[in-house]
């Protein structure tokens, strides 16, 4: 019988989470820790304790920015950013409720942009996200300001080798 810890370790396919001795350097360097209900160190502890339901139902795994600051600070090379990716994927593949739905919708909009042109066309990605989230106008002024300052371009270059992009999505079975 597989434990939650074994399941996460198998999917990370790297340094086992047991190598963490809870020095909290990951949490000290995390730029998002202030907004998390459980800090990165606590998530590891919860996995070690087999608290699958609490971990997969937490906002923390969705708030992680995958900046990898935690990974660079870890004295034992535990890949916490990869662990968070694995946990998010476990939620999605298990059809569990997503605590931070708009973060998932943003991720989907980003991937749809890559699928369609190989690169991100920011205005199209934003429009896609806004349609998915139903939050149409909350940051419209900022978007207009960014466009007026030349920070958003209406057109972005397409990737020349779209065949390679499609192959990546096929090989990873990304939707």
List keywords for this structure.
57% helix; Fumarate Reductase Iron-sulfur Protein, Chain B, domain 2; 175 residues; mainly alpha
List the SSEs and their pairings.
Elements: H1 4-12, H2 25-29, H3 40-48, H4 52-56, H5 60-63, H6 69-73, H7 80-93, H8 101-117, H9 122-133, H10 140-148, H11 162-172
What would you say this structure looks like, in words?
- This protein has 175 residues and is an all-alpha fold.
- The chain has 2 domains: 4-93, Alpha-helical ferredoxin (Fumarate Reductase Iron-sulfur Protein, Chain B, domain 2); 101-172, no CATH class.
- It is 57% helix and 0% strand.
- The chain is built from 11 helices and no strands.
- It has helices at residues 4-12, 25-29, 40-48, 52-56, 60-63, 69-73, 80-93, 101-117, 122-133, 140-148, 162-172.
- The relative contact order is 0.11.
């Amino acid at each position: 019988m597989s434990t939650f810890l074994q399941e996460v370790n198998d999917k990370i396919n790297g340094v086992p989470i047991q190598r963490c001795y809870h020095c909290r350097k990951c949490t000290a360097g995390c730029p998002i820790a202030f907004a998390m209900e459980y800090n990165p160190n606590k998530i590891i502890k919860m996995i070690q304790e087999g608290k699958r339901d609490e971990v997969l139902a937490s906002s923390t795994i969705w708030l992680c920015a995958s900046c990898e600051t935690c990974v660079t600070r870890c004295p034992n090379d535990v890949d916490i950013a990869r662990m968070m990716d694995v946990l998010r994927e476990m939620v999605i593949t298990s059809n569990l409720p997503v605590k931070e739905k708009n973060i998932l919708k943003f991720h989907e909009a980003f991937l749809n942009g890559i699928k369609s042109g190989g690169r991100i066309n920011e205005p199209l990605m934003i429009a896609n996200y806004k349609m998915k989230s139903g939050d149409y106008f909350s940051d419209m002024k900022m978007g207009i300001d960014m466009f007026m300052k030349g920070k958003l371009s209406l057109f972005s270059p397409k990737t020349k080798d779209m065949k390679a992009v499609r192959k990546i999505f096929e090989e990873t079975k990304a939707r």
